[in-house]
């Protein structure tokens, strides 16, 4: 795994993180998203070309999959990447309905779902958009401690691999280079 980790330039993310989508993949989930305000040492992800179940409105996102997630070029970034790979860490994003506005995020660690009483994570499309350009990521820990690890997901590259209005702001907040699992 370690030899398949490469360094990439964030300004070129549209070229190296471009992922094909399967037929029927929801438009609101296409593109590349910046995790603005994320306290962990990772910055961007794409939800494309993953296990999308249209019948159940559920998306499975493996964190250490090739070209799926960016990590900081730091010791903490390496530790997060290696830990995600070692534990096969992934998220199941279970949308409430076909509107794809609100979802429960289920962390899965070593194949075991993390109980909601430990962390109840959600993803909700921001009211200011109906295209999925902005998502609020909320967490409630241990049944009542809110706000730890919350952030805003902003689409920085759209479904047509074009920069959005959020792209330049993202570049000002991230390092020039990142770690990514290569193909």
Please tally the helical runs, counting DSSP H or I stretches of 4 or more residues: 3
Q: Rough shape?
A: globular
Q: What is the average per-residue confidence, as pLDDT, rounded to a whole number? A: 93
- Strand residue content: 35-45%
Q: Tell me the distance between the termini.
A: 11 Å
The string of secondary-structure elements, in order, is EHEEEEEHEEEEEEEHE
How many domains? 1
Question: How would you describe this protein?
Answer:
The chain has helices at residues 13-16, 75-86, 167-173, and strands at residues 5-9, 32-36, 42-46, 51-53, 58-62, 69-72, 90-95, 102-109, 112-113, 119-125, 134-141, 145-146, 151-157, 177-181. The chain has 183 residues and is mainly β. The chain has one domain (2-19, 26-181). The longest helix has 12 residues, at 75-86. The radius of gyration is 15 Å and the shape is globular.
């Amino acid at each position: 795994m370690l030899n398949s980790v490469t360094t990439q330039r964030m300004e070129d993310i549209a070229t190296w993180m471009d992922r094909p989508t399967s037929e029927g993949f929801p438009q609101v989930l296409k593109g590349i998203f910046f995790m603005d305000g994320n306290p962990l040492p990772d910055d961007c992800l794409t939800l494309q070309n993953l296990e999308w179940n249209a019948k159940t409105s559920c998306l499975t996102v493996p964190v250490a999959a090739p070209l799926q997630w960016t990590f900081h070029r730091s010791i903490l970034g390496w530790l997060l990447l290696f830990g995600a790979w070692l534990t096969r860490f992934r998220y199941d994003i279970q949308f409430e309905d076909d509107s794809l506005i609100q979802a429960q995020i289920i962390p899965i660690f070593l194949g075991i779902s993390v109980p909601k009483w430990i962390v109840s994570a959600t993803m909700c499309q921001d009211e200011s958009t109906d295209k999925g350009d902005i998502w609020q990521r909320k967490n409630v820990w241990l049944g009542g401690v809110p706000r730890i690890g919350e952030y805003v997901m902003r689409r920085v590259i759209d479904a047509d691999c074009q920069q959005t209005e959020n792209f330049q702001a993202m570049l000002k907040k991230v390092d020039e280079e990142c770690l990514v699992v290569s193909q």
